[in-house]
């Protein structure tokens, strides 16, 4: 049931505070440790891991890109992220010391399933992050972390993505705990921040009018670009994918630092460019992204800036400003993505498209 919403997708976007809270439920013991009961891989095996490889497709792949920043930062274990359909066919280097993490909302994606079968043949341990109880991918993995988002009906993934990102943070912190890289107080502080995320996601939803107004202004554009750095880069990719899928508009996400290596040639007067700005705490990155905004604005682009509330430095160069609640850089995807999901949903609605069933797409891609 759509519960009064026009689309399942919009309903699912608004369910995200609860979905993310459910992913977190019961992960924290009274002693203050993080527990992931489902990860039945012995801690000795997790301590031996010398490489983490994340394999997934589409939006789930972007969740994996976010995870890489967090997992490497917290565990200092090298982490690669790969599109499942590429991984399987390139003779990847994996062995029993590799931990393969697979991310799939449906748990039935054929490319991802083939990738984990290949990984297990090489005796790697496989942990699945999945939203569907008893699906094939978790059944064929050594362990599973369920995201508990509830059924996702809209073809475009929304709460699936946010809960995957949350599950990845939990896995990263758990690995850091098991491997002795992070201790009680640090883990507790980060878990405390994660526990505040549902309320902050709600804040983005409550303050979404500017995003909806922007969608009305930008319908029928031919092309839209998205820029970000660090974890803002996968957010940019996800923002672009949502727009392609739902509004059938050409949309591309770039790492903002790559702009001068080519994409800046695309900038022309009036071109809408979304820019995800890291929180000001990360001074260097913040400054660099702000200078990217100046560069594209000087060439006439219409800059749509997503930045922390009160970030007047970024706002100075914004034609439209979308304010985000203050969070740590690593956790910013949980709030920034929500604004981009709403934008794509609203734009596609205004253009008269079927948001829940975009053309040519299937919810679960069970063929390679
Ligand atoms: C995009 C989308 C797809 C899926 C991809 C993987 O909105 O839904 O890109 O993310 O097909 O699907 P799962 O996560 O079910 O393996």
UniProtKB/TrEMBL annotation:
It catalyses: D-fructose 6-phosphate + L-glutamine = D-glucosamine 6-phosphate + L-glutamate. Its EC number is 2.6.1.16. It is an enzyme of class 2 (transferase). GO terms for cellular component: cytosol. GO terms for molecular function: carbohydrate derivative binding; glutamine-fructose-6-phosphate transaminase (isomerizing) activity. It is found in: Cytoplasm. Keywords: Aminotransferase, Cytoplasm, Glutamine amidotransferase, Repeat, Transferase. The active site is at 363 (for fru-6p isomerization activity). Homodimer. Catalyzes the first step in hexosamine metabolism, converting fructose-6P into glucosamine-6P using glutamine as a nitrogen source. This is Glutamine--fructose-6-phosphate aminotransferase [isomerizing]. It comes from Propioniferax innocua. The chain holds residues 286 to 653 of 653 of the full protein.
């Amino acid at each position: 049931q759509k519960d009064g919403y026009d689309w399942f997708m919009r309903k699912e976007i608004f369910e995200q505070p609860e979905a993310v809270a459910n992913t977190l439920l019961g992960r924290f013991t009274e002693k203050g440790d993080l527990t992931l009961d489902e990860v039945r891989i012995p801690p000795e095996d997790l301590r031996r891991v010398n490489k983490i490889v994340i394999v997934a497709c589409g939006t789930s792949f972007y969740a994996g890109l976010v995870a890489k920043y967090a997992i490497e930062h917290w565990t200092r274990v090298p982490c690669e992220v790969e599109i499942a359909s590429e991984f399987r066919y390139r003779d990847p280097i994996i062995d029993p010391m590799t931990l393969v993490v697979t991310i799939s909302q449906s748990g039935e994606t054929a490319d991802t399933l083939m990738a984990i079968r290949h990984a297990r043949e090489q005796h790697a341990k496989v942990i699945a992050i999945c939203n569907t109880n008893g699906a094939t991918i978790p059944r064929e993995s050594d362990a599973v972390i369920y995201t508990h988002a509830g059924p996702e009906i809209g073809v475009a993934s929304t709460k699936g993505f946010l809960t995957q990102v949350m599950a990845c943070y939990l896995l990263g912190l758990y690995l850091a705990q098991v491997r002795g890289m992070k201790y009680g107080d640090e883990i507790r502080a980060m878990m405390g921040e994660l526990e505040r995320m549902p309320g902050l996601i709600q804040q983005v939803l409550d303050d979404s009018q500017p995003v909806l107004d922007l969608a009305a202004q930008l319908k029928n554009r031919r092309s839209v670009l998205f820029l970000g750095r660090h974890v803002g880069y996968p957010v940019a990719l996800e923002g672009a994918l949502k727009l392609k899928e739902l509004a059938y508009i050409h949309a591309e996400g770039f790492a903002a630092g790559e702009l001068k290596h080519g994409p800046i040639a695309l900038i022309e007067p009036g071109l809408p460019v979304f820019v995800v700005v890291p929180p000001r705490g990360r001074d260097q990155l913040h400054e660099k992204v702000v200078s990217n905004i100046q560069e594209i604005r000087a060439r006439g682009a219409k800059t749509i800036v997503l930045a922390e509330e009160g970030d007047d430095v970024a706002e100075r160069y914004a034609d439209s400003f979308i304010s985000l609640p203050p969070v740590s850089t690593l956790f910013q995807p949980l709030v920034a993505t929500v604004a981009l999901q709403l934008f794509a949903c609203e734009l596609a609605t205004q253009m008269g498209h079927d948001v829940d069933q975009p053309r040519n797409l299937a919810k679960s891609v069970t063929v390679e």
